[in-house]
Amino acid sequence: MLSLSGVPVGINGGAGRIGGNAFRVMIERPDLAFNLVAINDVGLDPANPARNFVQAKANDTTFGPWPCDMYVGSTPQTLMMLTRSGGHPVQITAEKNPANIPWGDLGVRGVAECTGVFRSRKTETKAGYDSHLDGGATCVALSAPAIDDVLTVVYGVHKTSLQGVPLLSGASCTSGSLAFMVRILLDHSTDWGLGSLDMTTVHAYTMGEQGLQDRPDHIRSGTRRMFAAGANIIPTTTGAAKTLPLVDGIGEDMKGISFTGTSLRVPVLSGSLTLLSAVLHHEPGMEEVLSECRHAAMGRFLGKFAVNESPMQSESGLPLVSSHIVKRPESAILDAEFCEKSGTLYRFPLWYGNEWGYVRRLCEALHEQAS
């Protein structure tokens, strides 16, 4: 919830898909008090950025209407939010270099770095996600896996206290879809005999890496992501197999466990599914595994991990398809109806809102980090 007495934060890339959803989450979460002071975005109309933001975000094709009324404030760079706590001004800047965004002058402590551009620390010739510290921020939460070594967090499975941590990565949406189920398997590794893991994510297409028409791509020359996202199933790689073993609270217990993965990009706007396969040498009954998942979903992972089934457990839950997942708050929803066991091989389908549940975990991490 936006509050002038909340944790003072800013968003770089605040008009993009992930940054815009972080903005929405900060408005909608009554349990998290944020004072969103400013957003930075070079893609908005430089002459009238607040008006352009209202035009673009008042109605979203995927996520629907903006969660509160908004309008242009006293200057073209001032965006006003009408929330339950009253009018809330948000300043808009358009700096290409994070070091030049005046976070310190604006009173911002924490920054959500949501552009997808700055995934490593700065060098002598190139800005990085840590450049926000040069602009006066005290901490940064990166909305992507970092290319370099940094604390990597899926909020809810992490063990390290985040308060005052200057830099962290929120991992990836696919890593988030896996983290809670993998944590459950790791917690019972001795009893169940966890041997290896493999995942395939069936992932909605994304704007930054794909186009709606076939296009030559000098950055990813020869890759299948050159072809039209809205008309193809596109096999590709996923960074989740590399990122998950780096996640705080997960990676230290994955040593010696083989983990592989791939991705299929499919023609949906949002809403994805990860199929996790696990070898459990001691062959626990599926009901035993599901019982532990239910316990975690109603306990320590409440609101972050769910099991889709009837409360009576004698029937399957509501029939889910990808559009049902778009604004689910959890990082993963285990679809119990389609869990399978074949000898030592177990398959767990995990739905996830790749642009929503992920952003909620990122905002939770930023709130603790900047508090």
What would you say about this model in short?
It contains nine helices and 18 strands. By secondary structure, the protein is an alpha/beta fold. It folds into two domains: 2-144, NAD(P)-binding Rossmann-like Domain (Rossmann fold, 3-Layer(aba) Sandwich); 174-354, Dihydrodipicolinate Reductase, domain 2.
Q: What is the CATH class designation of the largest domain?
A: Alpha Beta
| Structural class by helix and strand composition | alpha/beta
How is the biggest beta sheet arranged?
8 strands, mixed
List the uncertain runs: none
Determine the number of helices (DSSP H or I, runs of at least 4 residues): 9
Strand order of the largest sheet: 5-6-7-2-1-8-9-10
Taken from the alpha-carbon principal axes, the silhouette is globular
Mean pLDDT: 94
CATH architecture of the largest domain: 2-Layer Sandwich
Strand content: 25-35%
In the CATH scheme, what's the topology name of the largest domain? Dihydrodipicolinate Reductase, domain 2
CATH superfamily of the largest domain: Dihydrodipicolinate Reductase, domain 2
- The helix/strand order is EHEHEEEEEHEHEEHHEEHEEHEEEEH
User: What is the percent of helical residues?
Assistant: 10-25%
Distance between the termini: 15 Å
Count of β-strands:
18
Number of domains: 2
Please outline the helices and strands.
Blueprint: E1 2-12, H1 17-28, E2 34-40, H2 49-57, E3 59-60, E4 64-65, E5 69-72, E6 78-83, E7 86-93, H3 103-106, E8 110-113, H4 131-134, E9 139-142, E10 167-169, H5 173-187, H6 189-192, E11 194-204, E12 234-236, H7 240-243, E13 258-266, E14 272-280, H8 286-298, E15 305-308, E16 332-335, E17 340-342, E18 345-352, H9 357-370
